[in-house]
UniProtKB/TrEMBL annotation:
SUPFAM superfamilies: Nucleoside phosphorylase/phosphoribosyltransferase catalytic domain, Nucleoside phosphorylase/phosphoribosyltransferase N-terminal domain, Pyrimidine nucleoside phosphorylase C-terminal domain. One of its GO terms (biological process) is thymidine metabolic process. Residues 348-422 form the Pyrimidine nucleoside phosphorylase C-terminal domain. It holds the Pfam family PYNP_C. Its EC number is 2.4.2.4. It catalyses: thymidine + phosphate = 2-deoxy-alpha-D-ribose 1-phosphate + thymine. This is Thymidine phosphorylase. Keywords: Glycosyltransferase, Transferase. Homodimer. InterPro entries: Glycosyl_Trfase_fam3 (IPR000312), Glycosyl_Trfase_fam3_N_dom (IPR017459), Glycosyl_Trfase_fam3_N_dom_sf (IPR036320), Nuc_phospho_transferase (IPR035902), PYNP-like_C_sf (IPR036566), PYNP_C (IPR013102), Pyrmidine_PPas_bac/euk (IPR018090), Pyrmidine_PPase_CS (IPR017872). The enzymes which catalyze the reversible phosphorolysis of pyrimidine nucleosides are involved in the degradation of these compounds and in their utilization as carbon and energy sources, or in the rescue of pyrimidine bases for nucleotide synthesis.
Length: 435
């Protein structure tokens, strides 16, 4: 067995680590036989020199195996999931989980909290009073066969090595390493016991990956690594040059989810992305052989009311109100101050800084600037006008939901600072499919 500094030196010098060395490192993360300084040194060596696909596969599997790996004997359908690299207004998981469940697949989604400018699925669900994202694995194992989908937060039993390594990366400027991002995402997702995974890799001025080249590199890394680990995986590179849907903010996004599931309103771009991701999940999981048939099944899950019914049952089973769909106003927080953002001039609307809009939600109180911060679920933006829309001077392009008039005024200014009004810029929703 090598000593830690030998492993660090090999990677520092551009060498390739073998599986035993990688497993020793991951074991060192869980039993503290690697100190924080040694783990940080190896993370920096990986950041600077990269990893081969076999190295990344070995790191991913070792981190997955540092905790429990769920198994699903006896299910009469594929176990599938999707993961987004993060954006603003991305509430697709909330809509998609009950839809694919209604189509005969099973989706045990282990979701995260907001990070930086990106909203977190857990934070959105916790805007529902009583909904508990902290569940023992026994509860998840019980509910998935019954409901078809369960969306919960990360468990301490799943991929514990990733939590320590991520904390070290966060304070040592090594977060952006593609092999380390890949292993972090996949160690958690593969611990769910999946048959198939679809990745939504965001690109644009509201994404972590701002360029097509970076997004493609991450997508290829994830697909190659997950496939090498034995899970059928496909990555869709999708646009994040504007807020997804018409809302950004936790309770507001739950309202949009309910409107979507019940048919009250489905924003076209959001609907297209949801169908694309869902169809690929059903195809990879071999639930359907034809994309048109998969999309038709997803559409029927909505029109029949089955997806809405499953979502309601999941909310109730995890502690939320049984009548959320019928009486959302009774349960979801509403901000005391709601004011419009008015276009200062006539022209076609273009969003130039979607990250800035995400940070505006954080500053309203809808996200965290430090881990222990409490979130205000009521704040954010709604009635968001889509990019490319011709607007007139004085016309509302969004509504600000805030705790105070002062906060609302700041958010109005920040919203306008992220916009331009002139010639339209067209961004395709789906850039590339990999895998």
């Amino acid at each position: 067995m090598a000593i830690p500094q030998e492993i660090i030196k090999r990677k520092r010098n551009g060498g390739v680590l073998n599986e035993a060395e990688i497993r020793q490192f991951v074991q060192g993360l869980t039993d503290d036989s690697f100190s924080d300084s040694q783990a940080a040194a190896l993370a920096m060596a990986i950041y600077l020199n990269g990893m081969t696909v076999p190295e990344t596969v070995a790191l991913t599997l070792a981190m997955r195996d540092s905790g429990t790996v769920l198994q699903w004997p006896g299910l009469n359908g594929p176990v599938v999931d999707k993961h987004s690299t993060g954006g603003v207004g991305d509430k697709v998981t909330l809509m998609l989980a009950p839809m694919v469940a209604a189509c005969g697949a099973f989706m045990p989604s282990i979701a995260g909290r907001g990070l930086g400018h990106t909203g977190g699925t857990v934070d959105k669900l916790e805007a529902i009073p009583g909904y508990s994202c902290t569940q023992p694995l026994t509860k998840i194992r019980q509910l998935l066969p019954e409901l078809g989908c369960v969306i919960v937060g990360q468990s301490s039993e799943l991929a514990p090595a990733d939590r320590r390594l991520y904390g070290i990366r966060d304070v040592t400027a090594t977060v952006e390493s593609i092999p380390l991002i890949t292993a972090s995402i996949l160690s958690k997702k593969l611990s769910e016991g999946l048959d198939a995974l679809v990745m939504d890799v965001k690109v644009g001025n509201g994404a972590i990956m701002a360029t097509a080249e970076d997004a493609s590199a991450l997508a290829h890394s994830i697909v190659n690594t997950a496939t090498g680990a034995g899970v059928a995986t496909r990555a869709l590179i999708t646009d994040m040059n504007q807020i997804l849907g018409t809302t950004a903010g936790n309770a507001l996004e739950v309202v949009e989810t309910l409107d979507y599931l019940t048919g009250k309103y489905r924003e076209p771009r959001l609907h297209q992305l949801t169908l694309e991701l869902g169809a690929n999940m059903l195809l990879l999981g071999k639930r359907y052989q034809d994309k048109a048939a998969a999309i038709a099944a997803l559409e029927y899950s909505l029109s029949s009311g089955k997806a809405a019914e499953i979502f309601a049952k999941m909310v109730s089973a995890l502690g939320g109100p049984a009548d959320l769909l019928e009486r959302p106003d009774n349960y979801l927080a509403q901000a005391p101050v709601v004011v419009p953002v008015l276009a200062p001039q006539t022209g076609k609307l273009v969003y130039t800084d979607t990250v800035g809009l995400g940070m505006a939600v954080v500053r309203l109180g809808g996200g965290r600037s430090h881990p222990a911060q409490q979130i205000d679920p009521a704040v954010g933006f709604s009635n968001i006008v889509a990019a490319g829309t011709e607007v007139s001077a004085g016309e509302p392009i969004a509504m600000v939901h805030a705790a105070t008039s002062e906060a609302a005024a700041v958010a109005q200014a920040e919203y306008l600072a992220a916009c331009q009004f002139g010639a339209a810029v067209s961004y395709p929703l789906l850039h590339q499919v990999i895998g």
